[in-house]
Design a protein that fits this description.
This protein is mainly α. It is 84% helix and 0% strand. It contains 15 helices and no strands. Helix 9 packs antiparallel against helix 10, helix 9 (216-246) crosses helix 14 (363-416) and helix 10 (250-285) runs parallel beside helix 13.
């Protein structure tokens, strides 16, 4: 396949981003986050996981789609960049107050209010929201290398600091959940400082005047992005909070679920990163269908092949993963890994083709699908979790994510005429069958 110059530049920058994240993120997930759970315990970490899910689900209120709107708008017309950035940052200050009020209210009514942990998690999400809009400016301005470094700075900082606490003699017991969140907050502040430095290098200036620059026009334009992000977050994270509140084992069950879900989240992180790169690129190149299709056809297999391999391998290696990562402490983790890994191929389709729908202007179609499947997931969880616990929640996630991915793929194909080729689909089936036979032979 012969790529056009813009496509080659995009693929090269994406390669750097993936390389940095493939070095940093596994260390974060497997070396830091996992070990924090092992030290603090399943119940304490389960409470953190439930509250983190609550804070994350409602983060859309602090953004209301502004980041995605800014990303797409600047990619289409770079001259609007500084003005849009000023408005976006100013509006986020106002919307952050709304976000804090809603999260605290819901936590109070669901009896999930836990200070200071909840306040620390709220601050973490607020800072994350500001980091996202700064990164959106970088990526939409085609500053992919700078965005790549900003994307890993916070995690790199946490790895260094918590790694020192965990592995220096006599300091491992000093870690606590509150301290863990505080160090994450410090990493985000450092990451934001680096993003601001890159913007100042490009002579990008902005004015922060929350009440003057609050724009209802931008809010109306960005609202579909916001609501879609909310429903997508519900699809990924609502079960964590619902398990902590409703499962027979409460916070302990949430900790067990978190131990397995952590691996899904780590694998899916690459998809999030790629989607963040694809959105401004597709928005700028569309309607040059050939150029967009070339990039999609490269990105999709890069994610799909490892996802298929992991989904097939899960029944054979879940016990080994549980032993290596968690010392076999909770047998239920192995069963959850087997189930949740089946979601991985669906995540890829949602990230790639959902981004395609968003970037090409079909956000409302994507929004309708996200709403439908988020509603089904929450209703199913409300009935399934109290009766069948965490395994029931995991199977609900598999079926909902698979159905969601299939409909997103069909709708994006009908709207953009970009489909996976037959050879590519047969390749995935071939890889799945071959991997199953190899693993079955190896684990006889």
């Amino acid at each position: 396949m012969k790529l056009l110059p813009d496509s080659r530049k995009f693929i090269g920058s994406l390669g750097l981003l993936l390389l940095l994240n493939l070095v940093i993120k596994p260390v974060w997930v497997l070396g830091i986050d996992r070990q924090v759970q092992n030290i603090t315990g399943y119940e304490v970490y389960g409470q953190y996981f439930g509250l983190f899910s609550l804070a994350l689900v409602f983060q859309f209120l602090m953004d209301l789609g502004i980041t995605a709107f800014v990303n797409r708008s600047i990619a289409v017309d770079p001259s609007k960049g500084p003005a849009l950035l000023s408005q976006a940052i100013s509006m986020k200050f106002v919307l952050s107050l709304l976000y804090i009020l809603v999260v605290l209210t819901i936590a109070w009514f669901t009896n999930a209010y836990t200070a200071p942990l909840l306040w620390l998690l709220i601050l973490l999400q607020v800072l994350s929201g500001f980091q996202m809009v700064l990164r959106a400016y970088l990526s939409s301005s085609q500053l992919f290398v700078q965005d790549a470094w900003v994307s890993v700075t916070d995690k790199l900082f946490v790895i260094i600091v918590i790694g020192a606490i965990l592995w220096l003699p006599g300091t491992g017991a000093a870690i606590s959940i509150n301290r863990f969140v505080l160090i994450q907050i410090s990493g985000l502040v450092l990451s934001m400082a680096l993003a601001i430095f890159f913007l100042f290098q490009r002579q990008v200036r902005w004015n922060i005047r929350p009440w003057k620059y609050f724009s209802w026009g931008i809010l109306r334009e960005s609202l579909p992005f916001a609501v879609n992000i909310f429903f997508m977050t519900v699809l990924m994270r609502a079960d964590g909070f619902l398990i902590e509140r409703m499962a027979p084992g409460g916070a302990y069950d949430a900790g067990t679920y978190a131990a397995a879900f952590r691996l899904n989240d780590a694998v899916n992180m690459v998809g999030y990163i790629m989607a963040g790169f694809l959105l401004p690129y597709i928005a700028r190149q569309w309607p040059q269908e050939k150029q967009v299709k070339d990039v999609i056809d490269i990105c999709r297999p890069l994610l799909m092949i490892p996802s298929v391999l992991l989904a097939v391998a899960a029944p054979f290696i879940s016990g080994w993963i549980n032993t290596v990562l968690y010392h076999g402490r909770e047998a239920g983790t192995s069963a959850l890994i087997k189930i949740l890994f089946l979601c991985l191929p669906a995540y890829v389709i949602i990230q790639i083709h959902g981004t395609l729908l968003t970037a090409t202007g079909y956000i409302r179609d994507f929004l309708k699908l996200s709403f439908l499947f988020a509603l089904i997931l929450v209703i199913a969880d409300l009935f399934i979790i109290p009766r069948y616990g965490i395994n029931g929640a995991a199977w609900v996630s598999v079926w909902i994510q698979t159905g969601y991915a299939a409909t997103v793929l069909v709708v994006s194909g009908l709207r953009t005429r970009i489909w996976p080729g037959r050879k590519e689909v047969f390749m995935y089936f071939g890889i799945a069958v071959a991997a199953f036979l190899v693993f079955k032979y190896l684990f006889l």
